[in-house]
Amino acid sequence: MDVELPELPFPLRTYGPDGHWSYEDGVLAGWAGPRQDRFVPPTGEALDPASDAPRLLGAPEGDFQLIARVTVGFAGAFDAGVLYVHVGERAWAKLCLEYSPDVPTVCTVVTRGHSDDANSFTVEGSSVWLRVSRTGRAFAFHASRDGERWTFVRLFTLGDEKETGAALIGFLTQSPMGEGCVVTYDHLRFRPSWPHDLRDGS
């Protein structure tokens, strides 16, 4: 299913399980079903290939910043709302607001064959602003409590410039241990530029 949001200059397409995606009055909503997740444990082999989570993704061109305020209906450990980057089946990354395992936390996962997992900072309440940016072969993750001052979270790459230039970007919902959760994304913004400075809060 294709979805077009007025805030984004590229169409989105659904991937994985049905996320029951909807959009109304500037709010995108999606739902993760029971035990849906996207993670390849570094301690062992890949999860069952059927293991997946709902995704809504599109392909922006050139440098960009994708911004959203993410609100998660936390119910189970590791429930999360995610901004997601996909380059290949074993090359992707997540910037999450996650119940990790019982405190809302900004965390990241970068998968190159297997996934890593890193927590950044905790959040009061169930909402936070997330931002993913790209220039050339590089991606950056930022998070903000107020949508104004941004905390640098991560800088990484998932391949060469040709591969990352064709990356799919968008939204993911997950509920790895629970019975499902609802995630909303609002204050959606798209900028065709890379941040001026990754670490000055802008």
Automatic annotation (TrEMBL):
SUPFAM superfamilies: Concanavalin A-like lectins/glucanases (SSF49899). Coiled coil: none annotated. It comes from the Bacteria. This is Regulation of enolase protein 1. It comes from Streptomyces davaonensis (strain DSM 101723 / JCM 4913 / KCC S-0913 / 768). The lineage of its organism: Bacteria, Bacillati, Actinomycetota, Actinomycetes, Kitasatosporales.
